[in-house]
Amino acid sequence: MRRFFALLVAALCASSTGCSSDWVKQQVDEYRKRGQELDSQTIAAGLKQALEIGSERAAGTLGKVDGYLKNPPVHIPVPDQLQRAEGLLRKLGAGKYADQFVTSLNRAAEAAAPKAKPIFVEVIRNMTIEDAVGILRGGDDAATQYFRHHSQDRLTAIFRPVVARTTNDVGATAYYKRFVEKATSTGLVDTRGLDLDDYVTRKALDGLFYMLAQEERRIRQDPIARTTELLRQVFGS
Prior knowledge:
disordered N terminus, single chain, elongated, mainly alpha
């Protein structure tokens, strides 16, 4: 519409002698100023809708069975301190102990993921028009970084108890002990400073923000992912 207005003014001026290029520029600028508030509101509404859709998809995908376990980019492996021992155990044919342990860690993350939805909704509702405009004009993961800045502490506080409860329910501690017992014979085990609940919580959140960034990138770059007219209007411009 702005382009149409500018072309219309230019065409009218071309047929008269009373319009200078400065005047044309001034008229276009004034038009843009008058439309700025409406445009910003549209941008904010579109971005919030995109974030609602993207965050729901991300949390929903990860909150399903195997959402972490069989999703390579967010799969939670054994902690770094135990990876050398894991490799040796697998060579020795004792990989089932590592598999049981890793499965239990990922199940805990899958149980926590749905808890992110209400936190994301709160962040979206509190977002200002200025925030939304800045995010839209930012990089492909600008919204994800905004989420991380405004929600990570609260998500950590919510995720950790769920992870702690679930690691107990799925037997992660027992599997961990079996794994360590088997790995001790390799001489490669060092569990000093290892907090399983903290480890799973951090990895679960890393995976959540990764998936959110993927959803954000899809909506920005893929017209098919813009499933509403508002999204097409804002992200197609």
